Hints:
- The chain is mainly beta.
- Helix content is 15%, strand content 37%.
- 41% of the residues are buried.
Amino acid sequence: MNELLAMTSMASTKNFAQHYPEDLCKAERKNDAMAAQVLKVSCYGSRNGGMATTRCLSGSVKATSHSYKSVDIINGKKVIGIDMDVVPYLGTNGSEVLKVNSEDEPHARLLGRFVEDRFVYRQTFVIRSYEIGPDKTATMETLMNLLQETALNHVTSSGLAGNGFGATREMSLRKLIWVVTRINIQVEKYSSWGDVVEIDTWVDAAGKNGMRRDWIIREYNTQKIITRATSTWVIMNRETRRLSKIPDEVRKEVQPFYLDRVSIPTADTDIEKIEKLNDETAKRIRSGLAPRWSDMDANQHINNVKYIGWILESVPINVLQDYNLTSMTLEYRRECQQSNVLESLTSMKERVAEEKNSSS
Length: 360
């Protein structure tokens, strides 16, 4: 049974938490302990010549131990299991999705299409070399970017897209944009370079003034689900930067696409309260994290995926090397702008892990 370490992080615009092995907190393996680490990322902005701090993000993540994939480089024949004389996109992994036939043109899969009576949007991706990390698998940022890309293409393909970043026509007329308030992602397996994945996404109502978007990621060849994700979105006025109710005209646009289905049951999402951190309670602090111009997105704020890298800045390097994130929850509290400076704070605590029964 794998021991886990739970890490919770907070950022001045977001919340985040992760789980790693118990021995990082000097807990004995026989006790089956789970350690929790709390992270906080704070945004600083000038206010009357001083510095004002506001929490933007907090969240949680789980991870399990893993070993690096073996790399066969004898005579230069293979790298990460792919023959060097075979282009990854057209090699063993990618050939299935790029195979041309009359019923399923390759561009249709790569560009996306509707399935299940147009309630579900499906798109296929090949994991590229610049989307993998040191362990030769897709990073958490890569997965989040693929989810975002699929969601935006869903809106565009539906015929609803206005001139905003995923906004509908009626939203664009009213200067409204979508902003995410919460994301939970659970990863069973990370894909490797050249692997082909298939992503499904759909939407549903979330309360009176929110929208829920879910995703599942499958291995293309086996159709095995390897990642699940769910998120909650609300509407914001792009000029006043204030939250807004969903106008009836917008609701009429999106309601025909609502599907009453969840990728992650509510009981399985990480609902543990994320602890607050400060300079006194944090064990590790990474200061001076400055957003770059390229970190901004079309909604004129820091893109939600960028926070993951900042949060991991305060995670011990041995954790990043030896363990995979298996679950992550982000709660977005406020916007972060390019002029802000951030710091990431981390602390740990122990807790008992629940034992899972296994039939094998």
